[in-house]
Amino acid sequence: MSLSHPIYVTKSFFPPLKEYNHYLERIWKNEWLTNRGELTLELEKKLKEKLAVDTILITNNGTIPLQIALKILGNYGEIITTPFSYIATTSAIIWENCTPVFVDIDPDYLTIDELKIEAAITDKTTAILATHVFGNPCHVERIEEIAKKHNLHVIYDAAHCFGVNYKGQSIFNYGTVSTCSFHATKIFHTGEGGAIFCKDQKLYEKIFYSHNFGHNGPEDFHGLGINAKISELQSAMGLTVLNHFDSIFENRKRVVDFYTKNLKFERISKIKIRENTEWNYSYYPVIFESEEMLLTVLKTLNDNKIYPRRYFYPSLNKVNYVHGANMPISESVASRVLCLPLYKDLTDEEVSVIVNLINPLTC
Ligand SMILES: *Cc1c(COP(=O)(O)O)cnc(C)c1O
Question: What keywords is this UniProt entry annotated with (predicted)?
Fold first, then answer.
């Protein structure tokens, strides 16, 4: 069977327009568009309940929270980080005039290899910025131990982690600061948006004023800040999408289970999810035996109007403006990993076409 329409790696979830309009009517009635309006506060309250976290600050995307955290905690020092993530993890470090120091990844979990972190620490190191890749938690206990021992802050880029629990609680509860992205392509979205999580009340207050230009009332300032506020229009989208989250989650699980059941894992492998994790089915990465095999599969899929994505590629230490040491595992995985299409409305029939194109090329 072939498909009449192209299939992309993801498809933004569009809630019924009527439901979005219901929230827009409230905005029009309030005549209030941004600066922590009623809908933004309501979304924060609902997300706190949904995720079972004590604090959340919703922001305009998932990158500025990383920059705010690095501005406050990075102190122009060396930041130990992963080469296997989205570019924002590394670019935020450089943007904040800190220096990324890469530590290679674990070949199964694809998260930063905690056993290699200590060797990379110097007297200039100020923080560890690690990504819970594809929603798969880092070894948070070991990282916390290392951070304590060397007096470092831990920032987690948890952009992929909406709904992920580790050892019975939200993964956002780990680290000095944790961030999330609500970008249109993420599992929960507000069009553009994100959040920052921080349990330390003093630090949270600093983050809070930093996200609103540093304001302490209209005429006074606590300190330096930036604009990381979300608008009511985006919060309206978040409230509408949130009402459908259980169905988004269930359907992604359906697609993931279908891939896992039907793909032949002989010369390809899948990510190993860390023990004690309730995962969120946010991505479906497959790792091929060789880059050559990946390219063959990619071409065949593209010829059939199916567009998976080489994600993450390249390894971040290889980006032209980044000066990183070689990271053999990350570079090898990055050259062989493909994220397969995964979204709520992807049908079993469509997934079956994808699987049937891949299997003969990998056995
Ligand atoms: C999406 C993403 C970001 C950036 O989030 P935005 O909301 O697009 O700014 C950062 N890190 C990772 C790992 C991501 O996937």
Answer: Aminotransferase, Pyridoxal phosphate, Transferase
